[in-house]
Amino acid sequence: MLRTVLSLFAALIFSVSALFAQSSQDDIVWVQLEARPSLTEASANIRGYAQRMDDVNGFSLGGGWYAVALGPYRREDAENVLRVYRSEGLIPIDSYIALSRDYRSQFWPVGANLLTNPESITPGAQPEQSASVEITEQPVEAAPEPTQPVVQQLPDETVGQARASEAQLTRTEKMRLQEWLQWAGYYNSAIDGAFGRGTRASMANWQADNGFDATGVLTTLQRDTLRQQYYAVLEGMDLQVVRDLDAGIEMLVPLGAVSKTGAEYPFVQYEAANGPAKVLLISQAGDQNTLFGLYDIMQTLEIVPLNGPRERKKSSFVLTGQNGQVISHTEVSLEDGEVKGFTLVWPNGDEERRKRILGEMRASFTRLGGTLDPAAGDSAAQDIDLLAGLQIRKPKQSRSGFFIDRNGHVLTTAEAVQSCSKITIEEDYDAKVAVLDEALGVAILAPVSPLAPIDVAALRDGAPRIQSDVAVAGYSFEGALGAPTVTFGKLADVKGLRGERELARLALEIEPGDWGGPVFDAGGAVFGMLLPRDAQSAQQLPSDVNFAVNSDALRALLAQEGINAGLASSAQSLAPEDLSKRASDMTVLVSCW
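RE: above sequence
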């Protein structure tokens, strides 16, 4: 038996030089013996093959699979090797011919690189042999070059052999096969592992579209081809099992896209060197209150965009967020006093790969004992805009506004609420635009849920005296201080520079965050709302020249919309601290997200 095999190899020696001198890489083929789902298992099997034959190689297939193959050969030589080794029982009966492009990288022998550097093979090299093996060389005529390229591979199994190898599949493996067919668009029934009429029809259709005989029974080669098609999108993602004993989590992570950057309770973080991809392992001890608190906290993070479905149950939650840059998916559950889960953040526009990676991560997620230590992380790295090392989501812009009635309606500027996907009052309460008067530059907001203001504005009847003291309340630094500030100045005129009767001109220095805030007279009555400075104007006014919509124009707009505002007349001047207290109770932060 071995004499026959070694004679075969002796005949192949003379064709090695021609193999690499005359053939492109696509002409090089291999005899694939098997594919294994782990590098450890594949390496162990390779050593067994290498003890009884030469030309044994190991290649990565991607998606966590590894192949054992013989070669490289020309196709006609590979067919001879396949036939002889099968007949002698040295290789599995379902071995088949594979192309170099089917493989990613070589891991066996260590240091070999036959895929991208075939010239490294020494032409005419003799295969290693044991001392007890005798080689008898026989002259072999050179095989004639084919006049036409081979267009169809020889069948790797008969239908009977395919049914026999299919019978060895577990129910889980059969379900995976149905999933692959479903992904490829050929199967649309239940994933149940039962190969009925629908599954057989989908197999036949796939075979016909991929150049195989439509038998309705996939051979081992065909199953592997389908699997490679399914996992092709994951090429380069290097999905590997990460076993983090500190977090008590084991799961597949795309280490070709992200790498571990550290831990900051309750997250173990994996980030991309370039790009927005990110993976979080989430782990902390706690109860339902902990779970619900994490649900709220996660939604404040930049990595969880506002748009997307949210679902919170008694012992789990799912968060999905999407914007123009990323899609974020978080799954967390509570079991036995441990809150664990994961987050995948992936670039928007790469949906096929994202869904496949997410599916692999979800299927592989395994709970181990223990949770992340609350002390995990760098306590020295502090930033008001960071939470556990992650950026807290910030609004596009924040302006000021003020309550105008007990139903929670808020007056603010039209500029504050333009092009917003979400509007909030005090960052905690969602609001919608009830009225937008762009000519006047005013917006009226209505809270989505009922609000009970501490105080509401009383609009002054008439204007105060020119050069009298006035004050503007607003979030000058767009919420950074957590409370409104009060800026004092003078009423410069009761009309605009062009005589606009709905405006008042103020002499005071303000910040953009103050825009939309109430303007008070000395007695605490509101006689206007601060307007933004006109950035488009060709005139550059002094920084202390600002304008407000007066109370008469505001009252007319409110009455038109059926909103009753309080009325105030001139009153005795308030002390600055009393005026500040009144302003704080009615002034709100309006945020555009």
